[in-house]
Amino acid sequence: RCVIKELESLGKALYGAKLIAQRFQVRSCSHHKNPVSGSTCLLSMIEDGNPHHFFIATQDQELSNKVKRKPGIPLLFIIQNTMVLDKPSPKSLAFVQKLQTNQLVPEYQKQSIVELKEKEGLIKQEGEKRRKRKRAGGPNPLSCLKKKKKKTQEGQEPSAEKKKRRKRKRNR
């Protein structure tokens, strides 16, 4: 409501922005009797860790810098005619990293898991290496190609060029 009041007070220059803002659902804020500036109102709505999961859409650099200082608040802005979702701020990334590390297994439990695995012999020793088995390979694929037929010369008979070839036996 405070943003719409501010847009009304700025006059006809921002009439289009006022129409767009009125199309969205209007959230009631705590200062509806004595309205404050739009940026102050938006910051007060996301003050306690953004419990309603609001997105902030603004072109105001000062407001966007203040929003980036708070973790977990998505920031939208417009470039030319396209709405862009800003990448997460470093504060948000650090906050998420902290949450993820707290949700994982505590350090003392990790140590006890390692100790139990060592007792059961499930952890491989560094000096112990397994040998790879050599598997029987097939024949060389180049040796399996069909032989090319030689061109016969016109004056000679094809039977004269033929020679007996021995067949090779393979050892298995």
TrEMBL record:
Record-level GO cellular component terms: small-subunit processome
Domain of life: Eukaryota
Keyword Disulfide bond part of the UniProt annotation: no
Ranges annotated as biased composition (Basic residues): 162-172
Keywords: Nucleus, Ribosome biogenesis, rRNA processing
Protein's cellular compartments: Nucleus, Nucleolus
Region Disordered, residue ranges: 120-172
Pfam name, any one: UTP23_sensor
Membrane in keyword set: no
Main location: nucleus
Biased composition (Basic and acidic residues): 120-129
Gene Ontology terms: biological process: rRNA processing
Domain called UTP23 sensor motif region: residue spans: 130-149
Sequence similarity: Belongs to the UTP23/FCF1 family. UTP23 subfamily.
Record function comment: Involved in rRNA-processing and ribosome biogenesis.
Protein known as: UTP23 protein
